[in-house]
Task: inverse folding
């Protein structure tokens, strides 16, 4: 991925060293306020005036405009690049028995490496198995039975462990990083479909009941300054039922 939209790192890095000053130069905008008169926008440096004109978006600088010497643009923007490779595996086995069709299968995704360069000129960082980054190992496995229009399917959803390095800050104290354990949830589905060769008016009707997170497993507590769980890798809804009715013509 090139030109990924990402948040800028902390602006404290922009001017922390000559090297960083060069790397982030396109996001550092010096301001020349020679002749600036507070309150008279016609005397402001055009580089600064475009930000001052939108106080609801960039914040108010009333009474301080002429003191501004530089604008550090830390908005999210197209600046990152990620290089990733891995393996996707999928397998299915179906067997016809006197008791009905049995099917077993699964899909596994394993990311072997994922490196992200936040901005050109900086070192690549690991973009895997950390909070807000992809988890390197995921899988979904199924077992099912079907006969005479009836079917039952059980699914297991696996998400591997990762590191929460965005832990909660409390009065200036950063809590230790948290190792989030691997997690497995289960889904269950029941269904019945009126056979296509039926002469009934209900031909092609399918009814299904699906239960997500059938064991009502609670999400793991993943504390950050913004949340107590990780919405990218778990759900707070618990057990969810859904009923579906479809008709094929």
Result:
């Amino acid at each position: 991925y090139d030109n990924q939209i990402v948040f800028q790192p902390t602006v404290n890095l922009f001017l922390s060293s000559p090297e960083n000053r060069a790397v982030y130069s396109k996001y550092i905008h010096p301001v020349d306020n020679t002749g600036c008169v507070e309150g008279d926008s016609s005397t402001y440096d055009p580089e600064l005036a475009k930000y001052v004109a939108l106080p609801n978006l960039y914040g108010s600088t009333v009474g301080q405009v002429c003191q501004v010497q530089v604008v550090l643009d830390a908005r999210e923007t197209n600046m990152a690049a990620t290089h990733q490779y891995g393996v996707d595996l999928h397998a299915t086995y179906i067997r016809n028995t006197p008791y009905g069709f049995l099917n077993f299968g699964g899909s596994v995704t394993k990311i072997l490496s994922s490196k992200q360069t936040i901005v050109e000129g900086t070192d690549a960082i690991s973009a895997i198995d950390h909070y807000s980054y992809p988890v390197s190992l995921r899988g979904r496995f199924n077992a099912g039975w079907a006969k005479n229009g009836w079917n039952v399917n059980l699914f297991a959803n696996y998400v591997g462990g990762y590191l929460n390095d965005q832990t909660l800050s409390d009065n200036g104290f950063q809590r230790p990083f948290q190792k989030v354990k691997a997690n497995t949830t289960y889904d269950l589905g029941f269904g019945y479909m009126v056979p296509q060769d039926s002469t009934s008016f209900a031909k092609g009707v399918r009814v299904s009941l699906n239960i997500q997170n059938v064991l009502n497993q609670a999400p793991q507590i993943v504390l950050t300054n913004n949340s107590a769980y990780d919405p990218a890798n778990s759900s707070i809804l618990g057990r969810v039922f859904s009923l579906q009715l479809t008709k094929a013509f």
Notes: The radius of gyration is 28 Å. The chain has a mean pLDDT of 90.
